[in-house]
Design a protein that fits this description.
InterPro entries: YjbJ_sf (IPR036629). This protein is mainly alpha-helical and 107 residues long. The protein contains 6 helices and no strands. The longest helix is centred in the middle third of the chain and has 12 residues. Helix 4 packs across helix 5.
Length: 107
């Protein structure tokens, strides 16, 4: 993903940010409002790490996929669904309605 995805959907990324950096506070993230430099400075202060270390962690985090619940885009969504197939039980289709996943024994 690119920073502009994070910046454009800033509040939607709060959970993903907190998963990666549990030290963050949502009120502080509100004030940062997607500013990458402010975010790096904030993380450096919150974690006690050097800004260079935070920049590297951020680069690594950005190499990941955009969480599918953040960006609603058919191309991205279908790609994310295809990637999720490794978590779907054998005999089930990752494109089926997920309300029915795991309930094969109930039929």
């Amino acid at each position: 993903m690119k920073w502009h995805h994070v910046q454009a959907n800033w509040s939607a990324f709060y959970e993903a940010i907190a998963d990666k950096w549990p030290e963050v506070d949502e009120a502080d993230l509100d004030e940062i409002d997607g500013d990458q430099r402010a975010f790096i400075a904030y993380l450096a202060e919150a974690t006690g790490q050097e800004p260079a270390e935070i920049r590297e962690e951020l680069r690594e985090w950005l190499r990941g996929e955009i969480p599918s619940d953040i960006v609603m885009d058919p191309i991205h969504d279908n790609h994310s669904i295809a990637l999720s197939s490794k978590y779907v039980n054998e005999g089930e289709d990752e494109y089926d309605d997920d309300a029915h996943f795991g309930d094969d024994q109930d039929d």
